[in-house]
Amino acid sequence: MRFQVPQYIDVEDKIGALTFKQYIYVGGSIGLSVVIYVFVPFIILKALLIVPLVAFGLALAFYKHNNRPFIFLVESFFYYLLGDKLYIWKKTKKKQKTLTERAEESAPKTIEVPKVTQGNLHNLALKLDMKENEDRIQDRL
Predict the structure, then answer these.
(1) Domain-embedded: residue 122
(2) Phi, psi of 64 (to 5 degrees)
(3) Are 60 and 27 in contact, with CB atoms under 8 Å apart?
(4) Is residue 96 part of a domain?
(5) How far apart are the C-alpha atoms of 133 and 122, rounded to whole Å?
(6) Structurally, how many domains does the chain consist of?
(7) Phi then psi dihedrals of residue 97, to 5 deg
(8) What secondary structure does DSSP assign to 2-36, as a single string?
(9) Is the pLDDT assigned to residue 10 strictly greater than 90?
(10) What is the spatial distance between Cα 49 and Cα 28, in angstroms, rounded to a whole number?
(11) pTM to 2 decimals?
């Protein structure tokens, strides 16, 4: 049984010449412009509100910045505006180390290995034997 594998799954479906998102952006900006045109009394104020709104809607629908949709740029802008910021004032310089301090840091560290005496080795062997016997008893139960 053969199945047809979809190609081009990263391309959005189009309704006529535009995608659904583009229709929403353009239609929303035009709809808000009509509402502003009807309810705002002064013609200059209408123009000052409508022109940027339509330009923003068209930018959302068609403009790409670095081959990415404009909405990602707007989203990043708001994350930057509302996010936490780290400001550093009067950054202090690090104190330079002397040659002896550098040599001490780069010197290999010695690891102390505990000495095993005959008595310690015998005690360790007894503990291991006791542990094996306990395991055998547990297995039988």
Answers:
(1) no
(2) -120, 130
(3) no
(4) no
(5) 17
(6) 1
(7) -85, 150
(8) --PPPS-TTSPPEETTEEHHHHHHHHHHHHHHHHH
(9) no
(10) 14
(11) 0.55
